[in-house]
Amino acid sequence: MEISRVVRAISPEQLREFMDGREEGTYSLVDVRQPEEYRREHLPGALLIPVPELETRLHELPAGQDVVFYCRSGARSSAAALIAQDSGVIRGSIFNLEGGITAWDGGSIGSMPRVEVFAGIRTAGDLLMKALEMEKAAYILYATVRASTDRDMICELMDTLIGVEEAHARVVYKYLAQYWTDGSGELPAFEQLFEMLNGRILEGGLCVDELQPWIRGALAGECMELADLALEVELNAYDLYRTLARHAAGTGGAYGFGADAELIFLNLASQEKHHARLIMSKVAAFGATAA
Fold first, then answer.
1. The pTM is what?
2. Where in the chain is the domain with CATH 3.40.250.10?
3. pLDDT tens for each residue of 165-201
4. For residue 203, is pLDDT > 70?
């Protein structure tokens, strides 16, 4: 007789270590609250499946992956974890976040992932070109902040992020070259193409213009405010790329470009997670200086 899988409690600190130590695509993070709660705040990369919908949507979760459920305080996600356990659909380990998002302090974001900025996408190449546009937008954002201040700590952070965004854009370009099917000719060299891009929409789907008042206010305030801005940009990017990976694979989404395209966006999400950790380390340094 098969032994019933035990639901494991996981603390916020343990979950941070879990997420940092796992490759993207090897686990699922599931928010079981209502959509309006998710829009206000959610953990980056989390898939929204409200508790009432869980039984009919468990098939959206890869059966062999570990799954972490969370809600506001841990009660609804405890119920969700038991539903998943009893279903027999999930073969991986099942976790419930102790204290829910209320206890979480590892970075969270608001609003739904802005997949609407990818409207009209027909091919994986189109998807990657849009991703490259977003990398250019982040590059422009950080370059604009860098040019607007002479404070050493901000300049150091922005110089780092400018380099990170260009390097990440080159990774996207490498993938784009694999899917390039534009009938107008060969794919331009990276430097030429990157220079041509307008870069208005950031990686997380935010518009650069939307952030101008925030940038001006942050430049007049503390270093920590700009670090927070950069962190939100990168966490939104991570959130969006995780979502696009599901869409690219055709899981609960629109595209269905296949496993290779899914792996590309999981890799891009992994790099965004690294960028966020880099900024968090700088935030810690800013805090120590302020103290």
1. 0.80
2. 7-103
3. 999 999 999 999 998 876 667 899 999 999 999 988 8
4. no
Reading the block at residue 230, the tokens are: 């950069």
Q: Say which residue the tokens 């990774």 belong to.
A: 171
265: amino acid identity, one letter: F
Distance CA 146, CA 166 (A): 15
Type and span of the H or E element at 149: none
The answer to whether the Cα torsion of 109, 281, 95, 250 is positive or negative is positive
Residue 160 Cα to chain centre, angstroms: 20
Instruction: Give the ranges where 41-93 is alpha helix by DSSP (H).
Output: 54-57, 75-87
DSSP element (H, E) containing 154: helix 152-179
Query: What backbone phi and psi angles, to 5 degrees, belong to 205?
Result: 95, 0
- Cα radius of gyration (the chain): 20
Tokens of 110: 């608001």
Asked whether the beta carbons of 202 and 141 are under 8 A apart, the reply is yes
Third-level CATH fold of 115-290: Ferritin (1.20.1260)
Q: How many CB atoms lie within 10 A of CB 79?
A: 16
Q: DSSP states of 269-290 as a string?
A: HHHHHHHHHHHHHHHHHHHHHH
Q: Say if CB 244 and CB 195 are below 8 A apart.
A: no
Residue 119, SS3 per DSSP: coil
Q: What's the residue count for the chain?
A: 291
Model confidence pLDDT, tens digit, residues 210-253: 777 767 766 776 677 778 788 888 888 899 888 888 888 876 55
In the chain, which residues fall in CATH 1.20.1260?
115-290
Please tell us whether the domain made up of 7-103 is placed in CATH 2.102.10.10. no
Tell whether the torsion through CA atoms of 222, 287, 24 and 159 is positive or negative: positive
